[in-house]
């Protein structure tokens, strides 16, 4: 099992993984914004957890990380979509969309 780290530079790309791999999507946002999971192909990818480590900054422009953890669970290609929005706004008013495709193949580990 490997750990695959996905960053903003992977936007719109297809990332290769193996069954059982841990997938981490790490995105930053200003304190008044949240990244929200809006779509995931649950037949291929399992959502595990969202972690938001405490930030040191509290002023205007301070950022926090949003770490989304997934597991590649079966063969195929599935997508993950997240949207950036303010806490008080609806998903229709999202500022940004992040989407990545995960291509899952057979694990070579015995």
Helix content: under 10%
Instruction: Report the CATH topology name.
Output: Immunoglobulin-like
Q: Looking at the structure, what is the overall shape?
A: elongated
Q: How many helices?
A: 0
Your description of this structure?
There is one protein chain. The protein is built from no helices and eight strands. A four-stranded mixed sheet has the order 1-3-6-5, with no helix packed on it. A four-stranded mixed sheet has the order 2-8-7-4, with no helix packed on it. The protein is mostly beta strands and about 110 residues long. It has strands at about 5, 15-20, 20-30, 35-40, 45-50, 65-70, 75-85, 95-105. It has one domain (about 5-105): Immunoglobulin-like (Sandwich), CATH 2.60.40.2020. About 0% of the residues lie in helices and about 60% in strands.
Present the secondary structure layout.
Blueprint: E1 3-6, E2 14-18, E3 22-30, E4 33-40, E5 45-51, E6 63-72, E7 76-86, E8 96-105
Parallel strand pairs: 1-3, 2-8
Antiparallel strand pairs: 3-6, 4-7, 5-6, 7-8
Give short descriptive properties of this protein.
mainly beta, 0% helix, 110 residues, 8 strands, four-stranded mixed β-sheet, Immunoglobulin-like
């Amino acid at each position: 099992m490997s750990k695959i780290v996905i960053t903003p530079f992977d936007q719109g790309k297809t990332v290769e993984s193996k069954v059982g791999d841990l997938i981490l999507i790490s995105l930053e946002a200003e304190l008044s914004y949240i990244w929200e999971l809006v779509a995931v192909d649950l037949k291929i990818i399992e959502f595990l957890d969202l972690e938001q480590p405490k930030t040191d900054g509290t002023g205007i422009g301070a950022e926090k990380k949003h770490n989304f953890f997934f597991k590649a669970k079966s063969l195929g290609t599935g997508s993950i979509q997240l949207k950036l929005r303010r806490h008080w706004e609806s998903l229709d008013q999202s500022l940004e969309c992040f989407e990545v495709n995960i291509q899952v193949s057979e694990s070579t580990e015995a």
